[in-house]
Amino acid sequence: MIVSTQPITDRSALSAEHAEVIKATLPLVGGKINEITPVFYNKMFAAHPELIANTFNRGNQKQGDQQKALAASIATFATMLVTPDAPDPVQLLSRIGHKHVSLGITADQYDIVHEHLFAAIVEVLGAETVTAPVAEAWDAVYWIMANVLIGFENNLYASNDLEPGDVFREVTVTAKKQLSATVWEYTLAGELVAPEPGQYTSIGVVLDDGARQLRQYSLLGGSDTEYRIAVEDNGEVSGFLRDRVSVGDKIEATIAAGDLVLNKDTNPVVLISQGIGSTPMVGMLAGMNPERDVVVLHADQAESTYAQVEEVQGLVEKLPKAAFEIFYRDNDQWLEVAGRIPSGASVYLCGGVEFLKNVREQIEALDEQPRDVNFELFAPNDWLIS
């Protein structure tokens, strides 16, 4: 699922009266948002236990990642609406929209979120603080953001002629192989949709306690009948795939989504990854125009932990204008971008949070900035987007 347009926010949708209330209460709500979101999730899961069992990833909930993502997105969106020079968080909204469609989220679920989120706001801040005008203003912010996302998500579904939420497909594991001590590769066959280079799929498995848990994995490549994923050994879903899923077994996969997609221009491309973050880069290299200048930079702990080194090397060798460098921390090698990003390049990043922060800081320090910087994270850490 992919569209050429971005989520469109109408700043004027928030009335001047509501804007003044938001400006006055944003420091209070923003300062308490990390207290509000755990209360919200507890209320929502108590009322709808099927959501934590079948839709939300329990590991991310335990770590607080999804709670932080929600908190950051609401605060960022409210700030944008009432601050004239604040940038439109279009990247944040696009990432949320893609993640939602990869989980089959539909418009009616926004009503559920609204009900329990506002109950949590009142519980944490108190009814004396959340007066009728305050509640009305924040209600307006919520539905402006929700309607932007609902519209964008419906467009994503429509891009593959799908009804909203109809993204899950039964697939058969046709191949499974171990790439390193912690990484396995799976080939999945079924009635799918060919992905764009760099996209991901959500994999669903039913665990021993009956919960259907979902986890998103970047695609090494795929077609309308086959997806190939790399799975690092961490979390409930990954562990279940490793220990309980074999060739011939059937699991769930969603139609591919994700906005870290290789553009179809002719300008230079720089692919920068760390660890299992090399997975979408494999997909991009496989779909690369051989006439493009390509720089591939990868950081890993050691040669033995770089699970896809052979496949990346083979793809690079097929591209006449490609350069490939590896940095192993065990050899005291640290990835540096200075002098390695061609003028006018499109940069694609994928890796852990600290790695991503470091590379972004390095890029921002360059005298000449690349044409654009695009990135993907391993968890719902949308608060990193500025």
TrEMBL record:
<dbReference type="GO" id="GO:0046210">
    <property type="term" value="P:nitric oxide catabolic process"/>
</dbReference>
<dbReference type="InterPro" id="IPR009050">
    <property type="entry name" value="Globin-like_sf"/>
</dbReference>
<keyword id="KW-0349">Heme</keyword>
<comment type="similarity">
    <text>Belongs to the globin family.</text>
</comment>
<protein>
    <recommendedName>
        <fullName>nitric oxide dioxygenase</fullName>
        <ecNumber>1.14.12.17</ecNumber>
    </recommendedName>
</protein>
<dbReference type="InterPro" id="IPR012292">
    <property type="entry name" value="Globin/Proto"/>
</dbReference>
<dbReference type="Pfam" id="PF00042">
    <property type="entry name" value="Globin"/>
</dbReference>
<keyword id="KW-0479">Metal-binding</keyword>
<dbReference type="GO" id="GO:0019825">
    <property type="term" value="F:oxygen binding"/>
</dbReference>
<dbReference type="GO" id="GO:0071949">
    <property type="term" value="F:FAD binding"/>
</dbReference>
<dbReference type="GO" id="GO:0020037">
    <property type="term" value="F:heme binding"/>
</dbReference>
<feature type="domain" description="Globin">
    <location>
        <begin position="13"/>
        <end position="154"/>
    </location>
</feature>
<feature type="domain" description="FAD-binding FR-type">
    <location>
        <begin position="166"/>
        <end position="263"/>
    </location>
</feature>
<dbReference type="InterPro" id="IPR000971">
    <property type="entry name" value="Globin"/>
</dbReference>
<keyword id="KW-0408">Iron</keyword>
<comment type="similarity">
    <text>In the C-terminal section; belongs to the flavoprotein pyridine nucleotide cytochrome reductase family.</text>
</comment>
<dbReference type="GO" id="GO:0046872">
    <property type="term" value="F:metal ion binding"/>
</dbReference>
<dbReference type="GO" id="GO:0008941">
    <property type="term" value="F:nitric oxide dioxygenase NAD(P)H activity"/>
</dbReference>
<dbReference type="InterPro" id="IPR017927">
    <property type="entry name" value="FAD-bd_FR_type"/>
</dbReference>
<dbReference type="GO" id="GO:0071500">
    <property type="term" value="P:cellular response to nitrosative stress"/>
</dbReference>
<dbReference type="InterPro" id="IPR039261">
    <property type="entry name" value="FNR_nucleotide-bd"/>
</dbReference>
<keyword id="KW-0520">NAD</keyword>
<dbReference type="GO" id="GO:0005344">
    <property type="term" value="F:oxygen carrier activity"/>
</dbReference>
<dbReference type="InterPro" id="IPR017938">
    <property type="entry name" value="Riboflavin_synthase-like_b-brl"/>
</dbReference>
<keyword id="KW-0813">Transport</keyword>
<keyword id="KW-0561">Oxygen transport</keyword>
